Amino acid sequence: YRPAGQTSYKCMISLSDGGKDAIIRREFDLVSKRFVEDGFISAEAKQGSAWAGPDTLLIATDWGEGTRTESGYPFIVKRWQRGTPLEFADEVFRGKETDVGVWPLTLEVSNGRILQGAAEAETFFTTRYWWFPDGESTAVQWPIPLKADLEGIYQGQVLVSLKQDWTPAGQADGFTSGDLVAFDVETFISTRKLPHVSLVFHPEETQALESVGISKDVILLQVSDTAIGKIYRVEASDQGWQITSVRLPGTGQAGLAFVNEKESTVFLNYEGFLTPDSLLAYDSKDNSVTPLKSMPAKFKADGLTVRQRFAVSKDGTRIPYFLVSKADIPMDGTTPTVLYGYGGFQVSMNPAYSPVLGRLWLEQGGAYVLANIRGGGEFGPAWHQAGLKQNRQRIFDDFIAVGEDLVAAGITSPEHLGIMGGSNGGLLMGVMLNQRPDLWNAAVVQVPLLDMLRYHLLLAGASWVDEYGSPDVPEERAYLETMSPYRNFDPARDYPVPFFVTSTKDDRVHPGHARKMAAKFQAAGLPFYYYENIDGGHSAAANQKERARRSALEFTYLTRQLASSPKSPGR
Asked: Is this model's pTM higher than 0.85 or not?
C-alpha cells in the first residue's frame, strides 16, 4: 500500500511453516526493507487480507471455534485498525459455513477512494462479490453472474471476465462464456443497479483469456492461443474498445509480471521449453517490449526441438500436446518419454523452461510431452467444464489418446513411456494405473487425491465437490466409485511400478491418500516406491535443497524404468 503523495510502500508478507497453506502475515516496509515495528501481524491460519487504507486492513482468518468453513477456510471478514488488537477488529461481513471461503476485496475508484468488500466463494466455481457502502450496515452485491471474476477498474469501467453465458437485464444481446465485459462503476454506485454492459474482448475459438492487468494507461490481457501465450493491449476510445497484439520474442508462454493501476511501468515474463525465463519492459506509448534481464541457460538446447501435435480422443475431440525432444530421435519406439498431465480446475498447461527437466532428461536423450487435455483452461471455460463430475472420463480418454498417439507415431512404446502428474494430476495418474496399466512403464504420482469416496472429508477436499462430484449425492457417488484409484485397486492386475510422492505438511491434499494407496500395493506384494517429505506443503518441497532431492529421486526412477527394456514386471 502506498498512501497518496507519499513515497513509503507497505505490504503484507505471507510466511509459511514448511510450505503449508496456513500462513502468518506480517507488515513489511519496502523502502527500509524491514518488518514494520508494531505493524499488522496475524497468527498462523488459512487467511487473506486487503488494504482499505494506510491504517486499515480487511482480514478474514480463523477467529476460533466455528469460524471456518467445511473446507477449512475463513468465512468472516473484519475491519482491523492500526494499533488495535486483532481480537477487537469489527466484523463487517459473515458468509456461511457451507461456503468454500470468504476473502476481503478492495477496489480503488478515483482520487484514492477505496471500495471495500468481499468475495464469497459459495463453491469452487461460483462467487458472490459484495460492496460495503460507507456508513451502511448492509452489503450490496455486485450485479454480475456467479460464474465470473471481478478483475478491477479501468478509467471508471468495471472489468468482468465471464465463465458462463450472460444476457444482462434490459439488454437484447448477450455475452459468451470467456468474454471480458465492462460497465460504469459510478453509475452502479449511485443507482445500485447494473448499467449498460459493453464487450471488451471476445476470444476466438482457439483462445482463452487467462488474466487481466490494469495499468495507468492501458489494459493488458494474457491469452492462451492453442496453449501458446499471447499478450493483447486494450484501451478505450471514442470508437469503443481498441485491441492490439503485443509482439513477443517467440511462441512460448507470456505472462503479466507487474501491472498496477497507478503505474505506467509494466513488466512481462516470457519463457519457452527451450528459452529461459526473461523479464521484458512494456512501453504503452509505442506498444513495444524491450528485454531487460534473462535467466542464464541451464541446459544445452542444441539439437532439441519443440513440436505441437494433436491426438484424437475417444469422442473425436482433437487434443493438442507439446513434444520436446532431440530433433533426430529414431521413430522406432525406443525413446524414453515422460508424459505430463493435469486436466482440472481450468488450469492451463503452457510451455515453461525447466532446468531440471533439461539436464536430467532432455540432455540424456529423453522426450518430454505436455498434454493439453480437457479439464484445463487452454480453450476457455467450456474446455474445463466438459470434464466436470460424471463427465470426467473425457479427461482420462484425452490423456490415453495422447499416450496412444505417441506409440502409434513411433515416438515411444509402452516399455519406454512414463507418466507424471501432481495433485489433481496425481488423481489422473492413479486412474491411469487402473485404466491402462499396459500403456505405461512408470508413473510418478505426486501429492495425489486417490480415495475419491472420502476426499471431501479431508482438509480442503469439501471445496472440490463442484469439480469431482460429491460422494454424498447418489448419482455422483456411483460414478466416483467407478473411477476412484484407491477403490478400484486390483491386487491381481499387472501394474507398472509406481512412485508415490507426498508431504507430511500438505494441508491441502491429505498425505493419507498416497499412504493408503502405497499400503494397498504393499499388502498385495506389488513393488512400488514411496517418498514422503516432512516439509513442503502441497509442493512436497519447502526449499531448493528439498526440491533438488525430490527431483533427483523422480528422474532416477524414470531413467531406471524407461531407459531399459523389457517392461518391468508388475510383481
From this structure: yes
